[in-house]
Specification:
three-stranded antiparallel β-sheet; Nucleotidyltransferase, domain 5; alpha+beta; two-stranded parallel ribbon
Length: 173
């Protein structure tokens, strides 16, 4: 369910009012879900909500697919709670550890446990999401937020992602 937050997805930072978009894409950079939050909101707590919005219908019928095979994210999403959630859903995690997490694990010695698995080859695919953001930011209404309501801004973001989907379908023919 989509709702309009009381703050309209606007948050204060040194640069003024800002908005942050959290996007899930497929392996080709096509948008699957978008979530709008105030600019000062942390990335890590938003991962479960973004994953909750991912719904891919199956062409042959049946229940839609809701869990990706792999989540590739940057260090901002490297919380133990996110790793636990993804493991519980049997989703492969490719997220590097933050320096403070590495230091805390090493400080604890044997009690700190082993480092989480990290595939550097797969992590190189993270640029797909960054390129998807770059394409969406070519839309003036997305790059410079003119909308008062967060739901309207999210709609523009979703529209830009849909156009990206349609262009990618045209490239294959």
């Amino acid at each position: 369910m989509i709702y309009e937050p009381a703050d309209h997805g606007l948050g204060r930072s040194r640069g003024g009012l800002t908005t942050k978009a959290h996007v899930a894409t497929d392996g080709n950079g096509r948008g699957l879900a978008v979530l709008i939050t105030p600019g000062q909101a942390a990335d890590s707590p938003m991962l479960p909500m973004v994953l909750e919005q991912v719904v891919v219908p199956r062409l042959d019928g049946g229940p839609p697919r809701c869990n990706p095979d792999t989540v590739i994210a940057d260090k901002a999403y490297s919380a133990a709670s996110n790793r636990t959630l993804l493991r519980r859903k049997h989703i492969r995690v490719v997220i590097p550890e933050r320096a403070d997490q590495i230091a805390n694990r090493k400080r604890r010695g044997r009690a700190g446990g082993r480092p989480p698995g990290f595939d550097t080859v797969v992590y190189k695919r993270r640029n797909v999401v960054e390129r998807a953001f770059n394409k969406v930011k070519h839309w003036r209404a997305v790059a410079t937020r003119y909308d008062k309501l967060a739901i309207t801004y999210r709609g523009g973001f979703a529209l830009a992602l849909i156009v990206g989907w349609l262009k990618s379908l045209g490239d294959t023919t």
